[in-house]
């Protein structure tokens, strides 16, 4: 009797495990087919984007006349970003740049305006279009106590259309965001 009871319990447990696995696989499959803006589905990324978008847009109005480029992506970061995170983002940008061209991508670092920074930026960003813009001119959001780099799309009207805060641990979201950028560039040609 005890052996039969143990087999029934074990069978029930295995059945539950199989059901949970199937549900999880279906969920992951449906999650990998992201539509237009669903790449922001991650709660942390979504919350940080919602909180910072108004400040980024307001601060961009100050530098819009300086930059003036439309239909382009920009990447904003500060000097004290983690170097491996920055390298990861720059490598992804370089890959995108090879696909869509250099004209549609700008890097806006926030470094001190001194000779040392100019030399460092010219060495590190030689492959990119870039302009050093001070941290007080173009907003850099703070999330969970640290400042975050971000991407933003400038549409044909010269306004910020999409803001995205990358997460090095979720590079797929960045790549999905870049796919949306590529679509915008192709539709605006």
Overview in brief:
It is built from five helices and six strands; from the N terminus they run H-H-E-H-E-H-E-E-E-E-H. The protein is of the alpha+beta class and 189 residues long.
3D architecture notes:
The structure is a single chain. The chain has a four-stranded mixed beta sheet with strand order 2-1-5-6, sandwiched between helices. The model is unreliable at 27-44 (pLDDT under 50). The protein is α+β, with helices and mostly antiparallel strands and 189 residues long. The chain contains five helices and six strands; from the N terminus they run ααβαβαββββα. The chain folds into two domains: 1-33; 36-188, Glutaredoxin.
Order of H and E elements: HHEHEHEEEEH
- Taking pLDDT < 50 over at least 5 consecutive residues as the criterion, the unreliable ranges are 27-44
State the share of residues found in helices, binned by percent: 40-55%
Q: Which term fits the overall shape?
A: globular
Strand fraction equals 5-15%
How far is the first residue's CA from the last residue's CA? 75 Å
Number of strands: 6
CATH topology heading of the largest domain? Glutaredoxin
Largest sheet: 4 strands, mixed
- Tally of discrete structural domains: 2
- Based on helices, strands and strand pairing, what is the structural class? alpha+beta
Average pLDDT, all residues:
76
Q: What is the CATH C-level name of the largest domain?
A: Alpha Beta
Tell me the strand order in the biggest sheet. Answer: 2-1-5-6
């Amino acid at each position: 009797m005890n052996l039969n009871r143990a087999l029934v319990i074990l069978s029930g447990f295995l059945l539950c495990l199989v059901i949970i696995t199937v549900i999880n696989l279906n969920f992951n499959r449906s999650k990998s087919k992201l539509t237009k803006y669903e790449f922001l589905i991650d709660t942390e990324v979504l919350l940080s984007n919602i909180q910072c978008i108004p400040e980024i847009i307001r601060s961009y109005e100050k530098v819009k006349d300086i930059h003036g480029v439309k239909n382009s992506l920009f990447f904003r970061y500060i000097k004290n970003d983690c170097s491996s995170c920055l390298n990861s983002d720059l490598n992804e940008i370089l890959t995108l740049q090879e696909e869509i061209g250099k004209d549609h991508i700008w890097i806006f670092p926030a470094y001190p305006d001194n000779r040392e920074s100019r030399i460092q930026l010219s060495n590190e960003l030689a492959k990119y279009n870039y302009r050093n813009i001070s941290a007080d001119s173009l907003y850099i959001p703070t999330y969970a106590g640290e400042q975050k780099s971000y991407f933003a799309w400038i549409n044909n009207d010269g306004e910020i259309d999409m803001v995205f805060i990358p997460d090095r641990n979720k590079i797929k979201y960045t790549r999905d965001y870049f796919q949306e950028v590529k679509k915008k560039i192709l539709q605006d040609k």
